[in-house]
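Model the whole thing, not chain by chain.
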Amino acid sequence: MPVNPDIVGRVFPPTAAYLVGREKVREFARAVFADDPQHFDPAAARALGYADVVAPPTFAMVVQDLTLKQLLAEPDSGIELSRVLHAEQRFRYSRPIVAGDELTAHLSVTGIRTLGGNAMVTSDAEIRDAAGEHVVTATSVLLVGEGDA
Amino acid sequence: MTDLTVGDVIAERTVHLTRESLVRYAGASGDFNPIHYRDDVAAAVGLPGVLAHGMLTMGLAVQTISGWVGDVGRILDYGVRFTRPIVVDPETGADVGIIAKVGAVDEDAVRIDLTVTHAGATVLVKAQVRVRLA
């Protein structure tokens, strides 16, 4: 099944709130070889003006991933995980993610370009905090292969 | 932060990835795609071996400038294109080299360009970080 161009502009519900835990931030920071104290030590984070430990920049992917699961779950999307390659990724920040944040992400598919049998699917996940303030917008470009049939 | 000139190298490092690094990132990120830890699955889908997660490469690349950036809140924008996968050998792992250079300077921000290579080839292109100056 080719990628369905009708998913551009489709409205998706916001994801369930994701509560950012201090130990999760530390675990993620270790996994991306981050060593700055702001990611591990609440006192170091507070010295920079944050309420708790600060997540590394790409932590937003953990929340964005919830929206990509929504996209893959659309029965008529024509997008199957086994045929998907991550082609591009970008984050635009209003502020960093901090432990204690309760984040929701709102998915929109902004474009589909076909290249031969492949499709490039661009989507934005707008991530907001519990007060509704913008935190970061995560943009992914997925290269979806044609697959069998 | 003063006297930044386009082309200046502000930081560089090499990160050694092992299979443990990939399993650790899988757990931390929630990305459990088996091509990142199972040789049989990687081979079955035609890959040359178990690959590092693209988002792990993106995540560790920006850490090269963390000491220079200081407060993560100064990072306004970070984007990459994934061009080439990194095969992580079960015994010898894989080295990822990162060089961070000043790409552009304007009144309130500087663009840092990251050159990210593995085995002599570029693995991320247009890896750019915009950092607020003040």
